Amino acid sequence: MIDRPPDLKSTPRTAMLLLLLAGSLGGCADVGDTFVSSAFVDPARYDLYDCKQLETERRTIAVRTAELQGLIAKAGTVTGGAVVGELAYRNDYIAVRGQAKLVEEMWRRNKCVATTPAAATPLQVPAQAKGAAATSGLY
């Protein structure tokens, strides 16, 4: 007689273990970019910045965000590029988004007024980049 291992589908302990594993991994899916982006940035980083420094930082962050979105979109145009874009640029993109959120919060808290028209609008993701980022799972 052939001795073979028990069928995995029929053991209740295996089924319970699989359910427990799926439940624990499902909880990771709920962790959004909002939580992760704030984890990449020191909350006190911009506390001592005045409005002029915050305005400069907003422009710098906007340029970096646009640059990363462009790189992610460019990577997504080639075969396997979406994966490369995720691996290469996602952490930087999340960190920059966290910085942008923090700078905007400090901007509002300090009641700053933009000195140049370009700095008057809050940082927003361009529509073209949103589409590219949505396909790569960034939003």
Describe this structure in words.
- The protein is mostly helical.
- It is built from six helices and no strands.
- Helix 3 runs antiparallel to helix 4.
- About 6% of the residues have low confidence.
C-alpha end-to-end distance = 56 Å
- Roughly what fraction of the amino acids lie in strands? under 5%
Helix content: 55-70%
Structural class: mainly alpha
Number of strands: 0
Number of helices: 6
Largest sheet: none
As a whole number of angstroms, the C-alpha radius of gyration is 22 Å
Uncertain spans, ≥5 residues at pLDDT below 50? 25-32
User: What best-fitting shape do the alpha-carbon axes yield?
Assistant: elongated
N-to-C SSE string, H for helix and E for strand: HHHHHH
How would you describe this structure in keywords?
single chain; 139 residues; mainly alpha; 6 helices
Quick structural summary:
The protein contains six helices and no strands. The protein has 139 residues and is mainly alpha-helical.
